[in-house]
Design goal:
The chain is an alpha+beta fold. It is built from 16 helices and 31 strands. Strands 7, 8, 9, 10, 12, 13, 14, 15, 17 and 19 form a ten-stranded antiparallel beta sheet that branches. Strand 13 and strand 14 form a beta hairpin. The radius of gyration is 27 Å and the shape is elongated. 52% of the residues are buried.
Amino acid sequence: MPRDIPLGNGKLLVAFDSHYQIRDLYWPHVGQENHALGHAFRMGVWSDGQLRWLDDPGWERKLRYQPETMVSEVKLVHQNLGLEIKASDVVDFHEDLLVRRFEVTNLEENKKEVRLFFHQDFHIAGSELGDTAYYEPERRAVIHYKDAHWFLVNGAVLISDDDPEPSWPPSQDTAAGFQVGVHEWSCGLKEVHNLQGTWRDAEEGELSGNAIAHGPVDSTISFSLHIPAKKTRTMYYWLAAASNFDDLATTNRLVRQRGPQSYLDRASAFWNLWLTRKLPDLKDLPQAISDQYKTSLLVIRTQIDNGGAIIAANDSDISSYINDTYSYLWPRDGALVANALNQAGYLDLPRAFFEFCAKVLTNKGYLLHKYNPNGTLASSWHPWYRRGKKELPIQEDESALVLWALWRHFQKFGDVYFIMPFYRNLICPIADFLMEYRDPKSGLPLPSYGLWEERRGVLAWTAAAVWGGLMAGANFAEAFGEGPRAEEYRQVAQEIKKGVENLIWQPDLGRFAKMVFQEADHTWEVDSTIDASISGLWHFGMYLPDDPKIIATMQSIRERLWVKTPVGGIARYENDGYHQVSQDIGNVPGNPWFISTLWVAEWLAKTAQSEEDLAASEELLEWVTLHALPSGILAEQLHPYTGEPLSVSPLTWSHAAYVAAVLEYLKARKRLA
């Protein structure tokens, strides 16, 4: 199930599904640890003797972000309950704190008591073993903890003259007008002895008051609202994270003192400031494209850890398909996301990414498959040993694109003192590796795994990325006064391009091939599959976008990879088996991917010679907005017949590709004007 609303601050990431349930909760790193593991944190509403959880089909739901900020805007209506709820959620930009506001409106002609139930299904540090949940009476809150992971849930009701007398007097350090503290609670066991959890207690409208449980545990809390006919009452819920009890208690006290609304207000203002101070002139864009551009920037921010790891995706549901997640830094994805942020004017997040890469770079000058958010090496399926000998389990483009992105960063900002320490410990080691890791006869890079992680060989994409990395290394060497080193890098880059001309360009097809690979007898074999990633040949600068060979290749991509269903979009390559839905390859060469569609949109903008040419790029940008979730979230790929999101959602790379394509479109409009 997609994650329709992710909210985060670089340490705490909370993701809601389409039913408005928390499904993933990461802390203290974005992507590590997941304390929910996809288990639903249910929310239920009780009125007139009936409880309806938010996954009940009777709810009408609208999940959005508020314009130009990272605050949710949710509307829930249940006609049978006679209730409407307007909700807002935010993760504070400074505190590790989720704050939620609920405005509950009684749509009927009689007064109602409404009880809101919040269920917490923690699997702390990725496991339910050894957890503890307990009611803390001094703070009138429920706390879950294990080791150095502590979580507190609490809430407050905005007091009205129509409300009955509070069951306890307000604390002296509580903001005026609030009754703070959970009204009912229950802590109990789950997933053992056929127990489903405390959320089942709520279905009677009341909670047991059990004060503590340990092992595989969950908790449920509730708040009562007395709402006159046609009136609205407001309550807040908050969830704080800390490494110990004292810090947790401090955060809870700050919310009581300042009032929970202050956190919604300040976070809304902060994220609006973060976004709008870097926006280009979007006034001539269709509103949907402009809105998607802004949303994509904010969504990208939610997927980046403050330590520099740009995470591919944080949708844990994918684990049921691949027995793993996307909650890792792939250096390639990170470099392309960092580049999009750089071109959009953002400096600090890409800087942290480059610092991360410098720390994890091997002493041989290459980056490995992927990394955990804390900088440790992540899981991999690339072997170190194959066909009787050792081989490097790398995707060489991942190292090369870090250099390519770093040079574009320096071109944009000219931050000499930031770049200076990288020259010897990042730039030269990677460039030297790229120069040496080559086939001496063809000039091409030695085989490595491709960007789709399925094949080992020499992909057009990888050769282009290595060319781009070496040219970036040459530019840096020249800038730092090492002319001979710069010339050496450039010479090798030209030899790689010559190898591409000799082996990957296919004169009989009139276009470039996907890849070449060597058989055991060292003869070269060609995989001529049409693949959207061949776009790398112009994307990283080896060829101009309007080179006749590129034009012919891109036309083949547009014609052969367009999905010929009402959904449309560009597939990755012909007969793409990942999450494959159809064997009708002629009409559905693969599922449509956002990134492959956006590469075509970007190329159309780069090569446009008239407003009519540019309109084709705009059509693809609008296609993306039509196939995003209503909240603006972009998945990895779509079902070719229904348009429903497939695989992970959101995919950070999809949003970065949208930002890059819109910026290229704006450049083209300015150029044509």
